[in-house]
Amino acid sequence: MSDGVAACCTATVLGGLFPSQSGFKVATTKNTANRTVTLCAKISHNLRRFQDYCPNGLQVEGRAEVKRIVAGVTASQALLDRAVVSSADAVLVHHGYFWKGEDARIMGIRRRRLATLINHDINLVAYHLPLDAHPQLGNNAQLALKMGWQASGRFGAQEIAWQGSDSRNETAAQLAVRLAQVLGREPLLVGSADRQVRRLGWCSGGSQSFFEEAVALGLDAYVCGEISEQNVHLAREAGVAYLACGHHATERFGVQALAAHLAEQFGLECEFVDIDNPV
Ligand SMILES: [Zn+2]
Hints:
Udp-n-acetylmuramoylalanyl-d-glutamate--2,6- Diaminopimelate Ligase, Chain: A, domain 1, 2 domains, 19% strand, disordered N terminus
């Protein structure tokens, strides 16, 4: 296979994991070159249904054949260095590069990161909103799975946030304890700690802007990654529990689930590297 097709194959394999968005399911990496290219084009097109802040899929092209993947939340220099040590063919992340509005010049930190990838011929594959939203492998789906929540619908811009129920009938304070166990870090709980949590909303990462909608929906609690100053007052006045659990902490599960799926489905070696982030 030519470099172009093979690199495309990486994106195809990963893109094919989102059949609900793409309408295509790639069953094998042994597609003919033409089939691979066709699927890649269609999947890329369907991934664009998200109004995202970065390109999704293959962001930096590396070597043609991919057998070993290092996965992480963010394509920081520390993650890239680990990928080099691990002789990875591809780095798979939730937070890649080329964010809307950022300085496009390739200088300093950005140059060093890209040089690491290019000098070592490593592919960079990133899925942002599609990996938050995916119904099985996504961050929100995985958080629900680990917390035992039953999803009943979605809300927020592009329906990224989830709502559902928790049959344990815990208070918000008890829910915070269980979240700490699952996520490995203490959430910040504001609002009503004594409120019984039957119906709740959740969204990984920087999703504090959906809180108002969670309040309007009459939910008992909102679980997300970050919190802003005004959320505190709204939570107190609405009597809704707000649990800020960490942007990084809430976005570790999706990429791990995707990596595990790749390992199982396509026989790739996948290693998750957790570069600690207190935010
Ligand atoms: Zn994020």
